[in-house]
Design a protein that fits this description.
The complex is a heterodimer of chains A (47) and B (383). Chain A has 47 residues and is mainly α. Chain A is built from two helices and no strands. Chain A has helices spanning 2-22, 26-43. Helices cover 32% and strands 17% of the residues of chain B. The relative contact order of chain B is 0.15. Classes of the chains: A mainly alpha (47), B alpha/beta (383). At the A-B interface, helix 1 and helix 2 of A face helix 1 of B.
Chain lengths: 47, 383
């Protein structure tokens, strides 16, 4: 079950980072970057 | 134009990475284990919870159980703290036993971090510190992590949508996080969730080793008027508990006895009391951090236990006459001394009530001296 949830996190993370790179508005890019932080920490099982 | 976009993308990614490193390092530090003093020559062995549930091997909750075997056959006591990892008085009582105890008859088992995973995180949005420090007279510092009452989601995740385990507690809706609460899932499930596995290991340890009685240490907020300074006992442990509490009262320690609720499903005194032959007890000291009316949860509040809010509530008569909230608060030395005193009196009471199973302990610090001089003078230096 843990690995399924981690796969979901990774799936979301990839799309958010992709969206962040494609985004033209820097404020929305920063917004996406903030969302990335907890997802990365959970993916690495740090938080 | 394309170059600008690339530079901006790289900059945003770098900033995100930097925030991950800064935030992650704090969380990573919280996950590093406490260094305990294990130089007490009276320790005769170290067991692991995985000896009693192999599923725990390699997990964060494969914790040590320190054995103090006197060599004289007798009673067997199991004293542990760290079920709820922000209820620090219980953990420091176990540390006090670990560092000082000598068993003169029977056997004493001590576990410091019952739910070790709980020490690796704090409750989100609570703004709580993650460790306590004590400056010892020799200039060294002892550090102890402070966590939260639940297993860390990084070790047990996700929570189920519904759970009804052998504890008899039905978990649903907003109670589901309790699947990560060590004191809601006794006697546990051998191959269940990590917390259930830990409970089952404790259950199996008690049965395998033939433990005669247990003390599970806790702390409660001052508004928990039926819990503060109270020994909660399973009905089988009433003679033992009442004798211990009576001896504490004689020694001017304002303690009380409370019966384990019939529907306290999954709590140690109910879940282990019903399913093992051990006499199960649980003690709660007063810690303002555990209540709902505390001030900022900094190290001073944990250590000094001084809360203006609780003092005002006590002065307004909201807590009755069950206990006092003095100006000097409920410092950690006093809370630890209370845990130490009740555990010592339980040992003495068992020795008196069951003369065919003698159990005696020595070497523990004087409770009054502990309160007067502070834990800085009783904790051992790591050198």
């Amino acid at each position: 079950m843990l690995y399924i949830y981690l796969a979901i996190v990774l799936f979301l993370l990839v799309f958010i980072v992709w969206n962040m790179i494609q985004e033209k508005n820097v404020l929305l890019q920063i917004d996406a970057a903030l969302v990335v932080v907890p997802l990365v920490l959970r993916l690495l099982l740090i938080k | 134009m394309k170059n600008n976009q690339l530079i901006r993308n790289v900059a945003v990614l770098l900033v995100a990475a930097l925030i991950c490193v800064v935030a992650g390092s704090a969380f990573w530090e919280q996950q590093q284990p406490d260094v305990l003093y294990t130089g007490n020559p009276n320790i005769t062995g170290v067991l692991k919870l995985s000896d009693y549930n192999a599923n725990l091997k390699g997990t964060i909750n494969d914790v040590d159980i320190y054995v103090f075997d006197s060599g004289v056959p007798g009673g067997k006591a199991f004293i542990y703290g760290g079920t709820h990892t922000n209820e620090v008085g219980s953990m420091l009582n176990a540390v006090t036993y670990l560092e000082n105890a000598k068993c003169e008859a029977g056997t004493i088992y001590v576990m410091v971090h019952a739910n070790n995973s709980g020490y690796t995180h704090t409750q989100p949005l609570r703004g709580q510190i993650g460790k306590m420090t004590f400056d010892l007279p020799d200039g060294t510092v002892r550090e102890f992590h402070v966590g939260t009452r639940l297993t860390n989601p990084i070790h047990q995740w996700p929570d189920p949508n519904y759970r009804f385990n052998p504890s008899g507690r039905e978990l649903k809706h907003d109670e589901l996080a309790e699947i990560r609460n060590l004191n809601r899932n006794h006697p546990g499930v051998q191959d269940g969730y990590l917390t259930e596995q830990t409970c089952w290991a404790i259950y199996n340890f008690i049965n395998t080793e033939g433990i005669d009685f247990i003390l599970d240490g806790h702390e409660a907020g001052a508004e928990s008027t039926t819990l503060v300074n109270t020994l909660v006992v399973h009905e089988n442990a009433v003679p033992l508990g009442s004798t211990a509490v009576m001896n504490c009262v004689i020694n001017n320690l304002p303690m009380r006895l409370e019966f384990s609720g019939q529907t306290s499903y999954g709590l140690s005194h109910r879940g282990l009391g019903d399913n093992t032959n051990a006499l199960c007890t649980l003690f709660e000291s007063c810690n303002p951090v555990m209540g709902g009316y505390h001030e900022k949860i900094d190290e001073a509040l944990f250590k000094d236990g001084i809360s203006g809010n609780y003092r005002a509530m006590w002065e307004a008569g909201l807590f009755g006459n069950n206990y006092e909230i003095p100006e000097e608060g409920w410092p950690i030395e006093k809370r630890t001394a209370y845990h130490m005193s009740i555990s010592k009196e339980l040992i003495n009471a068992f020795d008196t009530l069951y003369p065919d199973k003698p159990i005696k302990v020595s070497g523990l610090p004087d409770a009054n001296e502990m309160i007067e001089k502070g834990l800085e003078y009783t904790l051992k230096s790591l050198g």
